[in-house]
Amino acid sequence: MKTNFQKEKQIVREYYSKLDNAQSMDIPSVLVEFTSPDYLWRGYHPFNEMTSARAVAESFWQPLRRSLTAMQRRMDVFMAGQNRIEGQGGVWVVSMGHLMGLFDTPWLGIRPTGKLAMLRYCEFNRVEDGKIKETAMFFDIPHLMTQAGLSPFPRQTAAHLVQPGPMTHAGLMNDAQDPDSGQRTLALIESMISDLGQWNGSLPLEDELRRTWSENMLWWGPEGIGATYTIERYAKQHSGPFRATLTNRSRTQHVARLAEGNFGGFFGWPNFTATPSGGFMGMPASDTPGEFRVIDIYRRDGEKLAENWIFIDLLHFWKSQGVDLLARTTAIDGGCETGAKGVAVEE
Q1: Cα separation of 256 and 266, whole Å?
Q2: Is the pLDDT of residue 13 over 50?
Q3: Smallest Cα–Cα separation from 100: which of 135, 65, 125, 130?
Q4: 3-state secondary structure (DSSP) of residue 132
Q5: Cα within 13 Å of Cα(306), Cβ side
């Protein structure tokens, strides 16, 4: 198994440098330069799947750059690893942080503030033969909506925050890491995944969490759920309500799962399906299964998971329940020009 990913990291660093410094009209050519002809891009709703680098540039990057002027990438995690999922394979390079700028023009119907705004993002890039062949990029649109004064969800159970990076400030792994450290991180993540649904109430939730989580864990959840701290509050403010209200959960499936050093993560398309039969996030109950597209990034401290950053495409999930939160919330706000053309919507 491959253990050195410096070549792939360098390709993504060069891509980011050119993309972040390109003039708007040059963004399509940058994406074409760094991606393969059969490129696949998976994005947060309403963008979903696109199979053209030029379409990604014109539908996502150019409108976003027009909206968040003077935009800069503020990375908190940068890592790479060999995909653990059998049959998927490949080396993936992962970055996580915020895209920061001045919210000067509308985006997706969200009214601009003229103030500093930060769009949480996490991106997985599969690099093969010197090109980016596949991307999964999730960005917390409801979090941006909240910064703009909108309320896409009922009151959430945990805290709304612009989320910091790792407490250790060690997430930017530009240099090669100890392969054994990455294997320990991946093994711990997989142990945590295997615990899900295994105990069926025979082990109290907090005791289950203590098997793989630090007592003072930090869970940086998406807008609509929020961030929470310590096992006790995580169980109370997210994990307990999540398990109580969502039924018929399918088995977890991932497209990519990897780790490097003390950090690791995964994404699925979707990760799992579940039915909000008891209601969820303050929304009405439903008997319709919905997809959960999720990215998770973890930091290991010793033999326990200490921090977790989560991106859930909640706009996609609630659209499957018949609730278009983006359209509904921006309509309540009065509506405005989106500033985005040609968005590819798959629903």
Answers
A1: 5
A2: yes
A3: 65
A4: strand
A5: 12
